[in-house]
Design goal:
- The chain contains 25 helices and 21 strands.
- By secondary structure, the chain is α/β, with parallel strands linked by helices.
- The strands form 6 sheets. It has a 6-stranded mixed sheet. It has a 5-stranded mixed sheet with strand order 4-3-9-10-11, sandwiched between helices.
- A hairpin with a 3-residue loop joins strand 14 and strand 15.
């Protein structure tokens, strides 16, 4: 069905999506640009009120994990440290500092005194305290997390400091804000006009451009709730209809044993690599959670720290480390790294001291200036020089991941069996490549947002290496054979990492690959290089400052450019997750917008694998989807604003400017460019091919899924098999998918 609009034809849902929803969604970001217009800079530079600035300053000073000078009295708690030092705060006037000295030393007495000072009735205490928590939501969220995980600060001490400052600054607590509502004579006429336009869309009538402009204004200025939800549904239905229609054209898989199989993360960016690798009919790909079912805390050889390489839903209980192949070489490597670390620490101290920076600038200024010049003018050359210099000073030794020390044999067998049954991998090629992913960026405070969400915001190389070691273990294979999973003796599992910024794939632990695999390894190198070149050109079409006409080498330099605010789009555009066999999607271009998790009902007779997928990867995908959704619809409140004005506060997060609230969500450069929104804000659609009865049982016994599906945070569409029609889940049972039917769906 088409509507005429300005001489062009669009489907009704397309008109709604493109011209209405996006216009309304982009409104909060109007005026933003990558270079920062005067209007944008003015809005972002608007200082918070004095109370917020002073409160945020004290929180940052207390929580900063790497302070230049340690905060006195910090070990006595947040309120006590604040009470001890605040009488000397230069941001307070002489009179305010004098009043500060009269505040009680005990936190409970101070809180009671602050509430009593404003004569707030006892029945209003809860309302006042809740309102204070809403003033700095970023810091409050971090304090809540900190209280649960570290216990060195809590919301009570924060509220005490906040109300004490109100008392000292003579600023009474504000009342709960009331929502302004337009008079009926203003809004009724507008909503009637909007209703008429909506009816014309659904009755195939022509839409006048003036009417469309009016509706844009309604949505941007006075968005009536019922119409906003209607636009959103139409927008999402349009995408879902197109997605389901495309799945019908999927190409079937060949019956012969493939030459190689590649298991990649379900991350939407991996969709492009899978699609391009499969141009070779002898390649079969699978999608799995990027930690490959191996939840570990991982420490590199000789490292002082470790990373949690597992989803945030899980708690690390096993630590995996590296074992060097050559102990003598590894010992020399560790000694050199420690000397380099000591030198870096000395330089850092010189840069951040009181007097030392002046002498340091005189001594090393010319060298740093030259390095900065090279790094700015030729980023790729600078990165190559640094990498080669690091290799000369401390050559990296060959290592293997020590899985046997972290997991028992039974645990390793269970992890291997669970992964294979979950993704439906029942046959094995001579070469199986387990490919984690990460991202290379420079000078990027949001780097972890581009890494693997299934690995806790880290790259997935450690998990891929650990999984490959498990599958290559003869004892594990013997136990799997007894459980009905036979891995041929000529099958070799290899770990790799896909860099989503440069679209290059690097094989890991190559010293452990049998020599007989050399021809297959050479063929894999040829395939992934061709796929990577094609994929980076494909992505360049939407990246600011890039073009598909540029050479891959030219596009890859963006990863090393410390002035590049758009190294890649990450998961911008994510809109759906498909759980089912690759035959559903093979040969279909999903434009890197879909999470792809492989699943075969026949390989999972009791539904254990499907339940794991729905309660873990689907939930994580929903987190990611909503992170982008809310950062797009309100970049200032739920996002992080423009990254060009960000300052890091220790390792806690970022601020806009020098002070204020800890920013939440993603920066504007992750969802839009200039004043144009790139990410299309829509709720995630979960498409599953599995028995409807089984899916219903899983949803019924998991409250987290009921919350998401029953309340329409996610849309679940499923079918029993490839011959069955699509149906959608509602709280009242399964209904045929007809697109426009929204009965049973909450607003």
């Amino acid at each position: 069905t088409l509507v005429s609009l300005g001489g062009a034809s669009f489907s009704p849902a397309t008109v709604v999506a493109r011209d209405l929803t996006l216009t309304a969604a982009a409104t909060p970001a109007a005026g933003l640009s990558s270079t920062g217009s005067a209007e944008a800079l003015g809005r972002h530079a608007d200082p918070l009120d004095r109370l917020d600035r002073v409160t945020a300053k004290w929180i940052a000073a207390y929580l900063d994990p790497e302070p230049l000078w340690r905060m006195p009295s910090r070990d006595d708690g947040f309120y006590h440290a604040f009470r001890t030092l605040a009488p000397h705060d230069p941001d307070l006037t002489r009179g305010e500092r004098k009043r500060m000295r009269t505040i009680p030393l005990a936190a409970d007495d101070a809180l009671r005194g602050a509430l009593a000072a404003w004569r707030i009735p006892a029945e209003d205490h809860d309302r006042v305290l809740r309102n204070e928590l809403a003033q700095l939501p970023g810091w409050v969220a971090h304090i809540k997390w900190r209280a649960e995980h570290r216990g060195d600060i809590d919301l009570t001490s924060y509220l005490t400091v906040r109300l004490v400052l109100r008392q000292v600054l003579d600023m009474p607590p504000t009342n709960v804000a009331t929502t302004h509502r337009a008079g009926p004579e203003t809004i009724d006429g507008l909503t009637e006009r909007a209703r008429a336009v909506l009816e014309s869309l659904t009755t195939d009538a022509a839409v006048d451009s003036g009417d469309l402009t009016t509706v844009r204004g309604i949505l941007a200025v006075h968005p009536p709730t019922e119409h906003a939800s209607t636009w959103q549904r139409a927008y999402e239905i349009h995408y879902r209809d197109a997605l389901l229609a495309s799945l019908g054209s999927a190409a079937p898989l060949a019956d012969e044993r493939p030459t190689m199989q590649v298991v990649l993360c379900i991350d939407a960016r991996s969709e492009g690599m899978r699609r391009l690798l499969e141009r070779n009919p002898d390649v079969e790909t699978f999608g799995a959670a990027g930690f490959f079912g191996v939840p570990i805390r991982f420490a590199r050889h000789g490292a002082r720290g470790a990373i949690d390489a597992l989803p945030a839903l899980l708690t690390p209980r096993h630590t995996a480390t590296e074992r060097p192949v050559d102990n003598a070489r590894a010992t020399r490597h560790t000694a050199r790294l420690r000397r380099r670390s000591a030198f870096s620490a000395a330089v850092h101290s010189s840069e951040n001291g009181v007097i030392a920076p002046f002498a340091f600038a005189e001594a090393a200024g010319a060298l740093y200036g030259l390095a900065t010049l090279v790094r700015t003018l030729t980023p790729r050359t600078g990165a190559t020089v640094r990498r080669r210099l690091a290799g000369l000073l401390a050559p990296t030794p060959d290592t293997t991941v020590t899985i046997a020390d972290a997991f028992t044999l039974e645990e390793r067998v269970v992890m291997a069996e669970t992964l294979l049954r979950m993704i439906g991998m029942t046959r094995f090629a001579p070469l199986v490549v387990l490919t984690g992913h990460g991202s290379t960026t420079t000078n990027n405070l949001f780097e972890s947002a581009l890494h693997c969400g299934a690995c806790g915001g880290n790259s997935g190389d450690a998990n891929a290496r650990a999984a490959a070691a498990i599958f290559n273990d003869p004892e594990v294979r013997e136990q799997l054979s007894a459980r009905g999973i036979v891995i041929p003796g000529d099958t070799v599992f290899v770990a790799a990492e896909h860099d989503t910024t440069t679209d290059t794939v690097t094989l890991l632990d190559q010293h452990a690959i049998p020599a007989g695999c050399a021809p297959l390894i050479d063929e894999f190198h040829r395939l992934h290089r061709a796929a990577g070149d094609a994929l980076i050109r494909e992505r360049a079409a939407s990246l600011p400052g890039a073009s598909s006409r540029h050479r891959p080498r030219q596009l890859r330099r963006r990863a090393h450019d410390w002035a590049e605010v758009y190294p890649e789009w990450g998961l911008a555009g994510n809109a759906a997750m498909i759980v089912g066999p690759r035959a559903m999607t093979r040969g279909v271009n999903l434009h890197r917008r879909v999470f792809l998790h492989s699943y075969q009902t026949a390989a999972d007779p009791d539904g254990t694998g499907l339940e794991s997928i729905l309660t873990a990867p689907v939930v994580v995908a929903q987190w990611i989807n909503h992170q982008y959704y809310f950062s797009a619809i309100d970049p200032e409140r739920y996002g992080a604003g423009t990254k060009t004005l960000h300052n890091a506060i220790g390792t806690l997060g970022v601020l806009t400017g020098a002070s204020g609230d800890l920013r939440r969500g993603l920066p504007w450069q992750s969802v839009g460019v200039g004043s144009r929104l790139i990410h299309e804000p829509m709720r995630l659609t979960v498409v599953v091919e599995a028995p409807l009865t089984l899916i219903g049982e899983i949803v019924s016994r998991n409250q987290v899924l009921r919350n998401l599906f029953d309340n329409s945070w996610l849309m679940l569409i499923a079918r029993d098999d490839e011959h069955s029609p699509w149906t959608r889940y509602t709280p009242y049972g399964w209904r045929p998918w007809t697109g426009h039917d929204t009965q049973g769906e909450p607003a």
